[in-house]
Amino acid sequence: MKAALIEAGKGVVVKEVERPAIGRGEVLIRMVACGLCGTDVERIRGGYGVGRSAIGHEAAGIVEEVGEDVKWLRRGERVVPHHHTNCGDCYYCLNGSPTMCPEYRRHHFDPGGFAEFFRVPEFIVKRGAIYKITERLSLEESSFAEPLACCLRALRRSGLREGWRVAVFGIGPMGALFLELLNSLGNEVVAVDIRPSRLRLADSIGVRAVDASKADVAEELRSLTGGRGADLSIVATGSSSAILSAIRSTRNGGTVCLFGLPPKGTKVDQDFSDLLIREVSVISSNAASEDEMVEALRLLEERRVNLTKLITHRFPLERFEEALRTFESGEGMKVLITP
Ligand SMILES: [Zn+2]
Ligand SMILES: [Zn+2]
């Protein structure tokens, strides 16, 4: 079978490999669609350090084979597997940090979601972190479950309230998901970016867009919120200037949620007394748990969010390199890999 894999010193290589053999309790999935995500690109480009080489986690597909202990799944069923899951009973799991569970990142797809077939390890299967998809939903749409779940968790951690005005900094694929999600929740949203194509996208979603290359964003947000600033600012980019701008644009007592991963070693020049005096909370949100996966799939199934319009490119596995270049150029929005 074909798979896109990271090879030391070469970046990503598409090659023929053995189809993974599955053991008891494991499941083999035939990939139908797998979204390309910023963290995949970080891994490929080496920004994340060594030892984290599996790529492709926003996958949806069809069950090809089940291990003998797996009674609840059948060959031919359409599914979305979650690439990581927590154990449910360690200190972190019991204290509200499931994505910090030591088991969470230990288990993942083999060889990864960018492969014709991939194996889901027993730990994930046992935890029930493979979701059956009804005919109402296409597998392409279902591949948005994981990124949407990450957005849901960020909003939950931020304590989002009805009526809050939210600023989203960085309208890449994740920023666009936030816009759609917040729109569907009925929160007023302002999108902040510097690329004209992304500002136009925000416009087409029906969201007010602020061009950070031209306007004083904090000033602009205050003028839109009766002089206060955003109740919540989500930073869906790793840009340090966006982080600083988000802090300045957030109202007294408001929250800044760091969501986009900055390059390793990023430092920002921020006066911390300002955070305390203005009681601005800076929090972060990393990945998603099964609660949010279930919620994300419900929103997709009930057509509360429509994300297929965000798909701008589809590339078959053998054109992975081109998919990567398209993603990095920023010209597209959601880039999907297909078999
Ligand atoms: Zn992702
Ligand atoms: Zn745990």
Question: How would you characterize the overall build of this protein?
Answer:
The protein has 339 residues and is α/β, with parallel strands linked by helices. The chain has 2 domains: 199 residues, Quinone Oxidoreductase, Chain A, domain 1 (Alpha-Beta Complex); 126 residues, Rossmann fold, CATH 3.40.50.720. The chain has 12 helices and 15 strands. A hairpin with a 3-residue loop joins strand 1 and strand 2. It is globular. The mean pLDDT is 95. The chain binds zinc ion (2 copies). The site of one zinc ion (ZN) has 7 residues, from helix 2.
Write down the domain tally.
2
How would you characterize the largest beta sheet? 7 strands, mixed
Q: Note the quaternary state here.
A: single chain
CATH superfamily of the largest domain: Medium-chain alcohol dehydrogenases, catalytic domain
Count of beta strands: 15
Assigned CATH class of the largest domain: Alpha Beta
Question: What sort of overall outline do the alpha carbons produce when their principal axes are compared?
Answer: globular
What is the residue-averaged pLDDT? Answer: 95
Q: What portion of the residues fall into strands of 2 or more residues?
A: 25-35%
Question: What is the architecture of the largest domain at the second tier of CATH?
Answer: Alpha-Beta Complex
H and E order: EEEHEEHEHEHHEHEHEHEHEHEHEHE
Global Rg = 20 Å
Q: What ligands are attached or bound here?
A: zinc ion
Binned, the helix content reads 25-40%
Structural class: alpha/beta
Give the CA-CA distance, first to last residue: 10 Å
List the uncertain runs.
none
Instruction: Give the number of helices.
Output: 12
Q: Might you state the CATH topology name of the largest domain?
A: Quinone Oxidoreductase, Chain A, domain 1
